[in-house]
Amino acid sequence: MNKAFCILLVAAFTFVCQPATATVRLKDMVEFDGVRANDLLGYGLVVGLNGTGDGLRNAPFTEDTMSNILERLGVNVTGEQFRPKNVAAVIVTASLPPFARAGGTVDVTVSAIGDATSLLGGTLVMTPLNGADGTIYAVAQGSILAGGAVAEGAAAREVRGVPTSGVIPGGARVEREIDFSLASLTEVRLALKVPDFSTALQIEHAINLEFAARAARMMDSGTVVLEVPATGARSTAHALARIENLRIAPASRARVVVDQRSGTIVMGEDVRISRVAVAQGGLTLRVEERPLVVQPNPFADGETVVVPRTAAELEDAPPVSLAEVDGGTSLSEIVAGLNALGVAPRDMIDILSSINAAGALHAELIVR
């Protein structure tokens, strides 16, 4: 057996014996420099509502906009008094995707800004959409799909969802293209969505291995630079197409994310807890009002009086002895140790905070 074959056999055995690690495509981990969407914004008018539009006394800007539109269409409304309830002023937003070409369409979101109660059944009148530089890049128009419902009567009103906001699929047509030439770039920066030195180094190695050249170099924990000429690819687009599906095993900091409002706890795989002892107790305060009605004797002078009676009780939770949580070497062991305490998720949040304060939680605790 020759020496080269032995080395290859040992390398293959080492690869097989390594623990399986989830890998992610490169394009799901980074943003390519310049390849991004651009936000668009516009102000428009929705017509055709079934009496659910703006009250023009409370939203005078709706009347002004409607007057301007009618005058541009040749209708003279100077000095006229009109109070239609089927018109609403709205803000229109859209996202112009990268490399969008003139004539293409994008989805738009329409949201009422006055006191309109619903946009169901409405139609957006031609609305220009501006970029951050004030230039018009698209024009929106079309029927609105609202995702809510309103039911009301003389004495009750029920609202489900948000009827004052809706979308128009493909409702904006691109009129101007973003001035950006990908082919002219000789360097492309890859910005990591979650900066990490280990992950950036893996990306550098994977790209250099793909092209068999030193085409990538790590700048910092959040940036890897790709030298397009060093790849030997026909163009920048061809180079990006070759690397975007490379599989990387991302490394990230150990984190515990806590949402106090919903009681949700999310732990990362690398979270570790040192061996600690935990005791958890509670205090219950119960206040009950029992008013007593005192009435005068029959045929006697006097009046009925309500005498307040309050019963207040302060109760300690049953005594709980210290519970030991062993140092976890895996996420499943940590979860099993914490579950052994038999506490609710909201109490678990306080326990994790206390463990972190004691220095036994080896992870970043993020409280929202």
Automatic annotation (TrEMBL):
The residue stretches assigned to a coiled coil in this entry are none
**Where does it live in the cell?**
Bacterial flagellum basal body
- One biological process term in Gene Ontology: bacterial-type flagellum-dependent cell motility
Signal peptide as annotated in the record: 1-22
Q: Which UniProt keywords apply?
A: Bacterial flagellum, Cell projection, Cilium, Flagellum, Periplasm, Signal
The terms under GO molecular function for this entry are: structural molecule activity
Q: Which InterPro entries would you find in this protein's record?
A: Flag_FlgI
Q: Name one GO cellular component term.
A: outer membrane-bounded periplasmic space
Oligomeric state and interaction partners are given as: The basal body constitutes a major portion of the flagellar organelle and consists of four rings (L,P,S, and M) mounted on a central rod.
Question: Which family does the record assign?
Answer: Belongs to the FlgI family.
The record's function comment reads:
Assembles around the rod to form the L-ring and probably protects the motor/basal body from shearing forces during rotation.
The record's annotation in NCBIfam families points to: PRK05303.1
**Would you tell me the protein name for this molecule?**
Flagellar P-ring protein
Source species = Roseinatronobacter ekhonensis
Q: What is the lineage of its organism?
A: Bacteria, Pseudomonadati, Pseudomonadota, Alphaproteobacteria, Rhodobacterales
